[in-house]
Write a structure and sequence with these properties.
The chain is mainly alpha-helical. It is built from four helices and three strands. Strands 1-2-3 form a three-stranded parallel sheet, covered by helices on one side. Strand 2, helix 4 and strand 3 form a beta-alpha-beta unit. Helix 3 packs parallel to helix 4. It is elongated. The mean pLDDT is about 80. This is Epidermal retinol dehydrogenase 2. One of its GO terms (cellular component) is lipid droplet. Keywords: Membrane, Transmembrane, Transmembrane helix.
Length: about 140
C-alpha cells in the first residue's frame, strides 16, 4: 500500500513538472513569435491559467487513482454492438482472440491478415458463433 502511495505522489510531481515545462514553452513561444505585450496575457491571467491547469491535473490524478482501485466491471464499457471493427492479424494469436471477443460483443468485423488460411479459420470460428464478418485477403506485394 505504501508503494502505491509513493507511486501516486511521484505521478503528481511528474505531472506538475510537465505542466510547468510546457507552460514555460508556451510563454517562450509567445515571445519567440513576436507577439506584442498587448497581445500576451497579463501576469495575473498567466498565474490564474497556471493554477487552473494545476488544479485540472490534480483532479485528473485523483480520478484516475480512484478508477485504479475499482474492480473490473464497475465502470461502464464502450458498446461496440453494430460498430465496424477492423482487425489486422486476425489469422492467429491475439488478433484471433480479439476477433472472437469483438464478435461476441456484437461488432461487425473486417478480418485482415497475410496468413489467408488462418484468416479463413478465424472466419469459420466466427460463423459457428453466428457473427457477421467480412474476410479481406491482404496482398503481400512488396
Amino acid at each position: 500500500m505504501l508503494n502505491f502511495v509513493w507511486l501516486i505522489v511521484f505521478e503528481i510531481i511528474f505531472d506538475l513538472t510537465a505542466v510547468a515545462f510546457f507552460y514555460s514553452l508556451y510563454l517562450t513561444g509567445c515571445r519567440f513569435f513576436g507577439k506584442t505585450s498587448d497581445q500576451q496575457p497579463s501576469m495575473v491571467q498567466q498565474i490564474v491559467d497556471l493554477l487552473l491547469l494545476i488544479l485540472k491535473v490534480l483532479i485528473s490524478c485523483v480520478v484516475e487513482s480512484v478508477k485504479a482501485f475499482l474492480p473490473n466491471g464497475v465502470l461502464p464499457r464502450k458498446k461496440v454492438q453494430g460498430d465496424i471493427v477492423l482487425i489486422t492479424g486476425s489469422g492467429s494469436g491475439l488478433g484471433r482472440l480479439l476477433a472472437l471477443e469483438f464478435g461476441r460483443l456484437g461488432a461487425e468485423l473486417v478480418l485482415w491478415d497475410v496468413n489467408e488460411t488462418g484468416n479463413k479459420e478465424t472466419r469459420k470460428m466466427l460463423e459457428q458463433e453466428g457473427v457477421k464478418s467480412n474476410y479481406t485477403p491482404a496482398s503481400n506485394n512488396n
